[in-house]
Amino acid sequence: MARIKYYYDTETCKYERVKVKTQDVVFNFLGLASLIIGCAVGLLLLYNTYFESPKELRLKNELEELKDYYYNLENDVSKMNEILAALEKRDDDIYRIVLGADPIDEEIRNAGIGGADRYENIRSSSSEFKDEIIKLSENVDKLKRKMYIQSKSHDEIVELAENKEKLYAAIPAIQPVANKELIRLASGFGYRIHPVYKVKKLHTGIDFSAPIGTPIYATADGVVEKTNVSFSGYGKTIRIDHGYGYKTRYAHMHEFAVKSGDKVKRGQVIGYVGNTGTSTAPHLHYEVIRKGRKINPVHYFFNDLNPDEYEKIVELASIENQSLGM
């Protein structure tokens, strides 16, 4: 029950009842409500300043978990890069060398991902970790590309391994003329005295001295790419394409036993020793060409020589003397 208030009226000398206006009640109520609301807001701000809400605690915990996931993922990418690097090294230094393939160029393996800015969405975000996310995304993209290149390399190696018999048959691994006594090698690969100009010039093959009509053998399986007749230079020549980057040339021949387009086997007679072109004596000038570059043929005479014979023929080929022709 509400308390009734009175006041003393000096004019009537009586206690009169206090009459409360509706407006005063409303103002008093609003004032009290404002005070309560102000205190509540103040307490809430004070609480939020020194204490975290359950939602904030949950978000903070989730953020810490995401950080852990990020660093774990970063470590996993780093470990995968190390494993991939070991595979690449084994691929280049073992598999490809054994199977006669060139190592993959380092620039190809480490090439980036081209195109427009792939990370524009991340870069334009408001996340405070966007730089770390972009860096990780770049590392993952590079890892994907390197794995793709390595996968293609393994496909190539598998194909080479499956065709290794064909590969070995394509390597020019015997001498092009019969030379059991090792007395026919007249001039080796390297700078030799030119038979005409009498100055040192690069001799791009090996000269085998032999009588005119001595059989010449294909040193590996292949296809006769070209036969040519000239009255100077190499004279009558045959060039055989063995595949896998190998070609051989036989020069200063007397006669051909094959023609362009013929398939030949290692040890098959392809022609006969002559004295044609720029030649000072009957002989065969023999070249090995690997991917367009002329290389020393003596390094390939391993199928028909034992270790001692091979050492002897390498020694003979290293003597700087006069070549017998171009």
UniProtKB/TrEMBL annotation:
Residues 202-297 form the M23ase beta-sheet core domain. One of its GO terms (molecular function) is metalloendopeptidase activity. Keywords: Coiled coil, Membrane, Transmembrane, Transmembrane helix. It comes from Fulvivirga lutea. This is M23 family metallopeptidase. The keyword RNA-binding does not apply. Residues 56-90 form a coiled coil. It comes from the Bacteria. Pfam families: Peptidase_M23 (PF01551). InterPro entries: Cell_wall_metabolism_enzyme, Dup_hybrid_motif, M23ase_b-sheet_dom. The chain crosses the membrane at residues 25-47. The keyword Transmembrane helix applies. CDD domains: M23_peptidase.
